[in-house]
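Look over what follows to help learners.
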Amino acid sequence: MKKILAFITLFTLAAAMTGCGKDSSSNNTQPETTVQTETETTQTDTTADETEADTSDAQDTTEKATAPPQEVGYEGMEAVYADSLNDGEYDINVDSSSSMFKITACSLKVNGGEMNAVLTMSSTGYEYLYMGTAEDAENDSDEQYISSEEKDGVSVFTIPVEALDKEISCAAFSKKKQLWYDRTLVFRADSLELDAFSEGSANTADDLELSDGLYSVEVKLEGGSGKASVNSPAKLTVADGKPLAEIIWSSNKYDYMVVDGEKYEPVSTEEFSVFEIPVTVFDRAMAVSADTTAMSTPHEIEYTLTFDSSSISKWEE
């Protein structure tokens, strides 16, 4: 009997010790789980913060990554100052170095030897402009900033223009990103109407009093990659007071030209692409474009042609 009681006592003690062991194990495990959860939560928060920072940095660099600088103006362009223009207000085309800085319309105001441009933007994304670099804008007084005006749901800026056909540095302040961005603008003199130019700064056939006949004239091509060329001197035909120039390209890969909004087909493509186009102005760059098939897909490329009136002489076969 004593042996039975001793066995029962030992069994009871063993069970009690086992129960205590389970409670102890449970109590030890729970804090570890809590700590791990807190650690994971902290890591998650840290990752979220890092992600937000990375996203912010990515947004700040999005423009640079997705909007590479665009070419403005054309090779060999010469600055045109206010004294070459008549006082007045004229529509003018503007080249922008960034597709993010889109100008939908521009009015050039010329008065007393000074020029100002009214730029109509495509949105309200920019709050200020500054005539200079982004770095200069950050270090200058806000009194030098040019504020926007909102008209018809878009921003409008009025800025001074030093010269046409000249690269002008301009910084734009983004409302969303609160950052300055460098821009380069070129106000294209070749997009102005002829009446904008003062006497002697640009000439027409009437100004030159060219009678009907055949002439030769020196012509200079600018723009594109610089690889293309045209024959010079070119044949100039004046009929009923209207001059037509024979433009012979350095290849036969041009399938049309555009002059003053009109499309012209080649008269020959046997050896070279040959066109007959109107000469709208002498002694000033005349904007044209030409479509080339030399690439994998056709591309319309912008050029300028300048016809030198001082070189005009009778055509000799």
